[in-house]
Amino acid sequence: MHFKLKQEDTQLPLGRHLHVASRLYFISLSAKLKGADIDKYYSVLTCIDQERELISQQEVGRRLMIDKASMVKIVDYLAKKGFVERRVNLLDRRSYHLCLTAKAREMLPGIYKTMGMLNQEAFKGFSPAQVQLFNEMLCRICNTLQKEEIAAE
Fold first, then answer.
1. Can you tell me the distance from the alpha carbon of 119 to that of 131, in angstroms, rounded to the nearest whole number?
2. Neighbour tally for 152: CB within 10 Å
3. 86 pairs with which residues across the strands?
4. Among 67, 64, 32, residue whose Cα is nearest residue 48
5. Where are the alpha helices (DSSP H) in the chain?
6. Which of 55, 61, 74, 106 lies in disulfide reach of 66, CB 3.0 to 4.6 Å?
7. pTM, two decimal places
8. For strand 55-56 and strand 92-100, is the pairing parallel, antiparallel, or unpaired?
9. Each residue of 11-62: pLDDT tens digit?
């Protein structure tokens, strides 16, 4: 899939740029991790991994903005592949905590390393200050849009 933004494309809606960038990032990540026993949902694994306490399926979905039905399918896929286990929440038997398996923990260093290399590739030609500024602006955009979403509810 070949895609190149043209100068006039800079006037397109922000959402389209972010969507395309996200798709290109995850297509590239999957290609670089080809041969691994997993081909998607890396963000879910890293989200679970970064939480040092037990994390619920619902909380992972909230953090990654994944609806409940899709989250169930994703966790089913990851469980079938042997990467996560669902454990009943003893305080609320209607919800589950997600735990990474040894198989997932073994694979995560390679996923993080590949993500780091891909990030470096994506920011090739950018100064460290430009990368920091980009990340700060992206956080501001997300925070602003989240405030708009909350206000609309």
1. 10
2. 6
3. 98
4. 64
5. 14-32, 42-50, 57-64, 68-80, 102-122, 128-152
6. 61
7. 0.82
8. antiparallel
9. 778 888 888 889 999 999 999 988 778 878 999 999 999 987 789 998 999 9
